[in-house]
């Protein structure tokens, strides 16, 4: 009974995570029903003296020191409930279960309440960084009982990514706070991915940049204010040769994007909260449009498209950089706005500067920009929207002329930039003190007596329109 940490699910993520725990000198025991996965773990390199695994649930739970700290890295959904039921008869009061998957936050709340009744502490902990992150240091977003967290804290702090020596993990709040934050992380991830991909399209269609040039452009951007994991890997993607034929792999990949649901959940829940996240919404819609490949092929033949307007290569590259920087800011602003609101609605009591800090390394949306974002929220913990942060006004203002020019150029050239134009239009609307929604109020009152308020006097009004 002397293992510090238990891990259920020895797939790629689980295997990598447990080896990471062992590398940090904690004794870790794995459990998986599949003997091959148990064997595979033992064949991996790493601090193998500190790792063991079994297909027997009794062997697994008996190996763990009290209170047991058991992390699940299994697919989200019913399997999590099944694993919980398998574990339950073997657990003691005070034991801790941590769900490291992308579980839907209300499932986490349900499980937390169910297990609390049985004396078991349940955590939903988002883990970001993919397979490599799990092995070398992910960003971890745990939520659950604060007191019980003290048992997990040393392990999570050791295994997490570090930014300037600071661990990219923090107890974010009670119940599903961690899962919720990870969900919005993924929503932002969808936004940034959409933006990086449509800027690629713009550069390719406008001035015909080839893959080598695209590599150089993204690589250069990654050394500047756009420094981020997603820009970095995009640069790398343009260089990859096709392993099954000639040319570059990127040109052979089918343009239909899959999704596992976290981006959609972010959008859906933003709607429930009444917080606008149009750049995330559009990123989800674009994956859906991409999936309609056969229809797109038919539609493409039905309509004419203008030839892209002539533009200087350096000019469009510069416009693209300004636009991507602006739109990245907007994607984070929308996601963080949602988090700030969810924090009140679900009583998570989130600290936005801490969230921005633990996203600075390890996770998929890590970016130089997060340093500025965390500073903005440190300066004002109650900031409703990043666009209201004094430190962001000049950053955003400086890009606007270019962004407007880019969106106009793309529209006139028939190049879709839905992420960028949604970001710009969100900005234009959010920063307008007067919007045309007075007309909508008038329409509602006109056809349905829904009433309206006035700008010049208190009260609720109804008019017999046209009379
Ligand atoms: C991460 C990622 C990860 C997610 C993938 C795939 O933070 O490491 O968000 O959790 O599963 O990004 O998501 P989709 O299949 O929905 O694109």
Brief sketch in words of this structure:
The chain has 467 residues and is α/β, with parallel strands linked by helices.
Topology overview:
Layout: E1 5-8, H1 12-23, E2 28-31, H2 35-43, E3 51-54, H3 57-63, E4 69-72, H4 78-87, E5 96-99, H5 105-116, E6 121-128, H6 130-136, E7 139-143, H7 146-159, E8 162-163, E9 166-167, H8 177-207, H9 211-221, H10 229-239, H11 262-273, H12 278-291, H13 293-302, H14 313-345, H15 352-358, H16 369-379, H17 390-413, H18 418-430, H19 437-448
Parallel strand pairs: 1-2, 1-4, 2-3, 4-5, 5-6
Antiparallel strand pairs: 6-7, 8-9
Helix pairs in contact: 1-6, 1-7, 8-11, 8-12, 8-14, 9-10, 11-12, 12-18, 14-17, 14-18, 15-16
This protein binds 6-phosphogluconic acid.
Keywords: Gluconate utilization, NADP, Oxidoreductase, Pentose shunt
Pathway: Carbohydrate degradation; pentose phosphate pathway; D-ribulose 5-phosphate from D-glucose 6-phosphate (oxidative stage): step 3/3
EC number: 1.1.1.44
Could you characterize the architecture of this molecule?
By secondary structure, the protein is α/β, with parallel strands linked by helices. The protein folds into 3 domains: 5-175, NAD(P)-binding Rossmann-like Domain (Rossmann fold, 3-Layer(aba) Sandwich); 182-430, N-(1-d-carboxylethyl)-l-norvaline Dehydrogenase, domain 2, CATH 1.10.1040; 434-467, Single alpha-helices involved in coiled-coils or other helix-helix interfaces (Up-down Bundle). The chain has helices at 12-23, 35-43, 57-63, 78-87, 105-116, 130-136, 146-159, 177-207, 211-221, 229-239, 262-273, 278-291, 293-302, 313-345, 352-358, 369-379, 390-413, 418-430, 437-448; strands at 5-8, 28-31, 51-54, 69-72, 96-99, 121-128, 139-143, 162-163, 166-167. It is globular. The structure holds 6-phosphogluconic acid. InterPro entries: 6-PGluconate_DH-like_C_sf, 6PGD_dom2, 6PGDH_C, 6PGDH_Gnd/GntZ, 6PGDH_NADP-bd, NAD(P)-bd_dom_sf, Pgluconate_DH. Belongs to the 6-phosphogluconate dehydrogenase family. Pathway: Carbohydrate degradation; pentose phosphate pathway; D-ribulose 5-phosphate from D-glucose 6-phosphate (oxidative stage): step 3/3.
């Amino acid at each position: 009974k002397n293992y510090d940490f238990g891990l259920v699910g020895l797939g790629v993520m689980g295997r990598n995570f447990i080896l990471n725990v062992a590398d940090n000198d904690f004794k870790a025991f794995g459990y998986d029903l599949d003997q091959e996965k148990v064997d595979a773990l033992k064949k991996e390199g790493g601090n193998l003296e500190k790792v063991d695994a079994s297909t027997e649930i009794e062997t697994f739970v008996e190996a763990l020191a009290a209170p047991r700290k058991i992390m699940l890295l299994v697919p989200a959904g019913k399997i999590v409930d099944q694993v919980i039921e398998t574990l339950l008869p073997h657990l003691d009061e005070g034991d801790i279960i941590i769900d490291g998957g992308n579980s839907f936050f209300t499932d986490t709340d349900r499980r937390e309440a169910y297990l609390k009744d049985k004396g078991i502490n349940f955590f939903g902990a988002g883990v970001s960084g993919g397979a490599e992150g799990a092995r070398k240091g992910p960003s971890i977003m745990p939520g659950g009982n604060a007191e019980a967290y003290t048992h997990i804290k040393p392990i999570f702090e050791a295994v997490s990514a570090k930014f300037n020596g600071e661990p990219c993990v923090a107890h974010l709040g009670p119940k599903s706070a961690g899962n919720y934050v990870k969900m919005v992380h993924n929503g932002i991830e969808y936004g940034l991915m959409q933006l990086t991909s449509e800027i690629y399209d713009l550069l390719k269609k406008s001035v015909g940049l080839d893959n080598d040039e695209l590599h150089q452009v993204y690589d250069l951007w990654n050394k500047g204010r756009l420094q981020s994991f997603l820009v970095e890997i995009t640069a790398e993607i343009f260089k990859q040769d096709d392993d099954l034929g000639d040319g570059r792999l990127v040109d052979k990949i089918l343009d239909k994007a899959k999704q596992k649901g976290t981006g959609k959940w972010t959008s859906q829940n933003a709607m429930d909260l009444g917080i606008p996240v149009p750049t995330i919404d559009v990123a989800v819609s674009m994956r859906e449009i991409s999936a309609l490949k056969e229809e797109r092929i038919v539609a493409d033949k039905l309509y004419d498209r203008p030839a892209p307007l002539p533009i200087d290569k350096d000019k469009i590259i510069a416009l693209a950089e300004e636009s991507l920087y602006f739109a990245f800011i907007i994607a984070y602003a929308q996601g963080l706005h949602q988090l700030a609101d969810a924090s009140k609605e679900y009583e998570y009591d989130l600290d936005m500067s801490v969230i921005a800090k633990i996203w600075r390394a390890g996770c998929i949306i890590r970016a130089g920009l997060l340093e500025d974002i965390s500073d903005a929220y440190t300066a004002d913990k109650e900031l409703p929207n990043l666009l209201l942060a004094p430190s962001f006004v000049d950053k955003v203002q400086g890009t606007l002329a270019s962004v407007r020019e880019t969106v106009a150029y793309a529209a006139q050239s028939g190049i879709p930039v839905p992420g960028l134009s949604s970001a710009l239009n969100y900005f234009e609307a959010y920063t307008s003190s007067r919007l045309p929604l007075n007309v909508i109020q008038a329409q509602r009152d006109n056809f349905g007596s829904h009433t309206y308020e006035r700008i010049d006097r208190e009260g609720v009004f109804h008019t017999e329109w046209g009379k």
